[in-house]
Amino acid sequence: MALTLEEVRHIARLARLRLTPEEEQRYTEQLSAILDYAARLQQVDTSQIPPTATVLPLRAPLRPDEPRPCPPRERLLANAAQQQAGMFRVPPVLDQEP
Amino acid sequence: MADLTDLTLLEAAQALRRGEISSRELTEACLTRMQALEPQVHAFLATTPELALQQAQAADRRLKAWRQDRSQPLPLTWGIPIAVKDVLCLQGVPTTCGSRILEGFRPPYTATSVQRVIDAGAVILGKTNTDEFAMGSSTENSAYGPTHNPWDLERVPGGSSGGSAAAVAARMCFAALGTDTGGSVRQPASFCGVTGLKTSYGRVSRYGLIAYGSSLDTVGALARSAADLVPLFEAMAGHDPLDSTSMPDPVPQVSLEDADLKGLRIGVPREYFIEGIASEVEEAVRRAVQVFADLGAQVQEISLSHTDLALPVYYLIAPAEASANLARYDGVRFGPREPAQDLWEGYFATRGARFGPEVKRRIMLGSYALSAGYYDAYYGQAQKVRTLIKGDFEAAFQEVDLIACPVAPTTAFRIGEHGDDPLSMYLEDVFTLPANLAGVPGIAFPVGFDSRGLPIGMQLNAPHLGEPALLQAAHSYQQATDWHKEHPPL
């Protein structure tokens, strides 16, 4: 197995996903199988090969930094789980660590 | 006149121009057919009949004016009812990506690709079903239930643009927009017996396409023939300042009259005819290649030697990008939030409860591939091998103009057939992933049926920005054959 249960729990934490014990078990098996399959990439000699991050010849294009109209605040807030006083409302943030 | 939904897009466009039918009549015919067939097919996640009828009425006014004064050109999409995959934003219309994490989301703006077809007069019938966040090859990963293949309702339509493919095949619409990150336009087109165009990376704006794998995502379209796809491609393609990855190159007009296969060099990669491909698929594709040869193309065998590595490369790069893209679903700015005492708990609860199994799997896989200590071995190595796969295509296109190959190793499989075995499902994508990794365009179109009566598709690939050559070649084939004219028994 490429992955242990502990590693799966660690990844789920990094990804901010709450998993049930059954999910942890299933993902340990399934992700291990996928990573075992992907192990064939390790056999390729890429010491002289640059990575491809994008297929495009473009390099981050620039545009003038000019103010433009944007959608009205109400429209952008309309999908919020909770809003208050024209802002997104969230549960307490400070003094909390996962 | 026979049922209006039996017309092709171009036939309908000509009838609209001549004033023989109205966009309203076309739209009503589509809505009626949707109502009749949706209980069986479930191609749509949201329908927009009121919007469609408004757009149809506006289109009819413009068509009437155009018939009196033809000095301004009118796009062939004018007044044509189409569907839009539910990963593309349409302002004010529910857009879920097939996910419960976007339940109730109404986008504050419209995707450029969608806006451009609306500006070209298209009528929007609704949003089509998709694997959650376009992650899947069967539409079974939709949180809202699978779409059924119109050729056999027990079977999948392919995915992730399965709703779009099924809606076109069932003649509920004349065309549909789809997206293709690893085969999501071409494979469902193949499974449903329709023609699907995956555009070059950067050819169509991705602004308003809800992101999955940002270095791979492309917007495309599905219709009943290559000729029907041309006006959609022309409407959508072209630079968009709102997408920094959209190419500034001008979009050439696609002239089908010039389509000629004589002397066209078509390469058939030997690595695509491997163990695991259904013999009926291989035979149909080889017969289709022979048709191209009979029409004057020069067919030769070529090698894309790193083909077998495309699958592991894709299933590291796409999940890595997905894990970053899907970090935005935090239950704060859009989508529902699960009750929680504090912000952190809210993240874990909302994402844990509202992402489906395949999305969680890919987020986990991607997070792992990017995590400290594993980045170089997995993500970094995948990016380097991607260079080799891209290089295969560059070398091949020194020798040939187009590449011809199967779309998928099998025809449509049964709903539930791949069960809870993600790797076996991923293998369905083995022939479509390389084009996304290389960024090149592809077109899938029907070339026969298997003994169960299920459509078989084949794929052509062209160099980057080579869509006109693809559309012309597929059109030439469809002029010489009738597979694309077959209808499912619905």
Overview features:
heterodimer, A: about 100 residues, mainly alpha, Histone, subunit A, about 5% strand, flat, B: about 500 residues, alpha/beta, Amidase signature (AS) enzymes, 11-stranded mixed beta sheet, 15 helices, 11 strands
Brief write-up:
The complex is a heterodimer of chains A (98) and B (490). Chain A has 98 residues and is mainly α.
What is the fold's blueprint, element by element?
The complex is a heterodimer of chains A (98) and B (490).
Chain A: H1 5-14, H2 21-38, H3 73-77, E1 83-84, E2 87-88
Antiparallel strand pairs in A: 1-2
Helix pairs in contact in A: 1-2
Chain B: H1 9-18, H2 23-41, E1 44-47, H3 49-68, E2 81-85, H4 112-119, E3 123-128, H5 162-169, E4 175-179, H6 186-192, E5 195-198, E6 219-223, H7 226-236, E7 265-269, H8 279-294, E8 298-302, H9 310-325, H10 343-354, H11 357-370, H12 376-399, E9 402-406, H13 422-426, H14 433-438, E10 442-449, E11 455-461, H15 467-480
Parallel strand pairs in B: 2-3, 2-4, 7-8, 7-9
Antiparallel strand pairs in B: 1-3, 4-6, 5-6, 5-10, 9-11, 10-11
Helix pairs in contact in B: 2-3, 5-6, 7-15, 9-11, 9-12
